[in-house]
What we know:
Urease, subunit C, domain 1, Diaminopimelate Epimerase, Chain A, domain 1, 3 domains
Amino acid sequence: MPSSFRRLALAAAALFGCGGGSESAPEEFLLLNAKVFTADFEAPWAEALLIRGDRIAAVGRTADVRAAASAGARMIDLGGKTVVPGFNDAHDHVTPSLPAVQVSTGPDPLPDPPFRVVAESLRAAVARTAPGTRLRVAVGERVLSDPAARRPALDLIAPAHPVEVQAWSGHGLILNSAALSAAGLADSTPDPLGGRFERDRSGRLTGLLEEYAAYSIWSRMAVQTDSAVRAAFAARADEAIRLGITSIQNMSTGLDPAVLGRVLDSLGAPIRVRIIRLPTTSATGRVTEPWQALRSAEGSWATVSGTKYVLDGTPVERLAAMRRPYSDRPGAVGRLNFPPDTLRAILQDALTTGDQPMIHAVGDSAVGIVLGLMTELGPDSAWRRIRPRIEHGDGLSPDQYALAQRLGAIVVQNPSHLTLGPLAAARYGPARMAILQPLKSVLSNGMMLALGSDGPINPFLNIMFAVMHPDNPAEALTVEQAVRAYTLGSAFAEHQELRKGRLAIGMLADLAVLSQDIFTIPAPQLPATTSVLTVIGGKPVLDPGGLFAGAQPIGDR
């Protein structure tokens, strides 16, 4: 166990104690006959735990935990089931998008059809839907780079339907005239900082929007009403607690900060929500003012902290910024969305305000530029205090490990990204594949690793991907490492490791009792796991079996 975590454990116990903060005696629940993974480095496994109020009051051997309980405690026999800290999704996206008909181009989960197939699917959708119906279709790089797959062709297919052809990677969007008009875009609309509207020789928009050109209009492609935003978070909370997720850190792509400001304190409690600012840009620079005013109420289940910027794209569309060309396209090295001076200003703002910077940096060049500018701007101690995050960091390379560790950079990875398979092999080639998407190396080189979804939110599916690592098996994690990254790592990544992320004395009683023992079953069986009991702040928020209601008095000890 690192010494820093030993100090954190002692601080948490001293700072928070074991009570629920009420003058009357808090309720106590004794969970017995369990296999408890605490995520603590020194004592990772236990047999029982005691919840007192909203905190963990004791954890360890059955006899010791039972002795710590008061006479009024009630017992729950878990029948040998596995208990873990509540999962903390470090990179989620909750946005109520406008209703649309999803147009399928086939069964491939990572679709990359030719435009011919997309066109046929859209024609069929147009024929069966009323004019004005919004149509949405997911594509890969093949369509994005096809000059025929643009606004004129889409207009011929769907003159009266707004059409959104979206890259499944989230980096690339093609709109027809109806969709461009609905988004308020005209041929005269200037390119925003960090983005590009593709234009033909006459200056007319082709419909292709790259990076911040798309991000800047996503809020116009979402339902921005108070009720819709509340409903989106409530739906996510309902889905999350069934999977043992007790906290989400939401990258607020497409969300209107003014709407969030009105509904922030009622975003689907009781799940814990962290709102992460995601400023858009205009032709003149970053648009940060609307986000700076966003604050959460004291004691709210929702908090606001951290600011995310997208520095490059992904290998799917070859926009991740690389030091050497992509193996399947000589000369192509991706690109940075922001010039170094803008990134320098972003990082300087973080140092000045103390607000945690979260930089989407996928390619090794993008990662290197971030680390280099951090070194120029401030001492290691200043960066370690605010905990800069590298979102994804697929290209973080061995020659960058020591500097990243020294600066206290946290790597936030999304395991579904580890499944690119032949696409990744084609883009990177054998030598880079051998060091691609480090997980194991992040931990072994002393960096913090957090896991989040950025896709399917099922943590057990994502744990399966992390322990198999289809793209680079040498970087796979153990189940224990993956769960710790999904709990303690994610808590550390939001400056909350003194409150949650471990099942230890003084920590919040956020936990899940699982339907399977995820530490012993074969990896392919992991995604079928669910939570049979989810507890947040000592209260059951999912308890279909009535375990809390059926808890028995402790009786004689």
